[in-house]
Specification:
Elements: H1 2-14, E1 23-34, E2 37-49, E3 57-67, E4 71-76, E5 83-101, E6 109-131, E7 138-161, E8 164-174, E9 178-186
Antiparallel strand pairs: 1-2, 1-9, 2-3, 3-5, 4-5, 5-6, 6-7, 7-8, 8-9
Amino acid sequence: MRLVIGGAALLFFTTTSAAQSRWTLSAGPEWQPYLGGQFLGGRMRGEFDLLKPDKPFRLRVELGGYWEPTQDRFGTSVIDGSTYSQTRQTVDLSFGFSAAVTPLPRARFAPYLTLGILARQSWIRGADARFPSGGQPTYNRFSGTLGDFTFPAGLGVRARIGRRVLQFELRRFLGRNRNALMAGTSLPF
């Protein structure tokens, strides 16, 4: 009986599927913490493994996008007692490469660390209003675009369930103070 249980456990944790897809589609929330709340939006990305995904080192090319609904923020300044309101909306497209390292590439549950570089083009629009106590209010509308590079670092786990591979990843975009929690699946082609 112990041999059967041990064999089943070994099979469960070390078997790979016959033909693993190199394409993965992921989506999930992304947020930016700041003093007084968080901006929240959604990110979606597609990935293609340049190296076979059953190796300890993985290299991926990825294309993604972010959308944030219009969000409002209101508050009072502790410095001068003025009140303010802010409205903004952001959209971006990103393209780049990421690498992942896993100690258990063929296990059913394979944890991994990832680091990448993405070229990002962002579009933002919004408005600010400040109402100083005893002074004239100021209003400012803005819109624009910005191109930059961002460096996602994170940790995740790939789980093989039948012929499907599920991926869960927590990412931190270094230099941007943003976090993303992505859930994805391998595509059937």
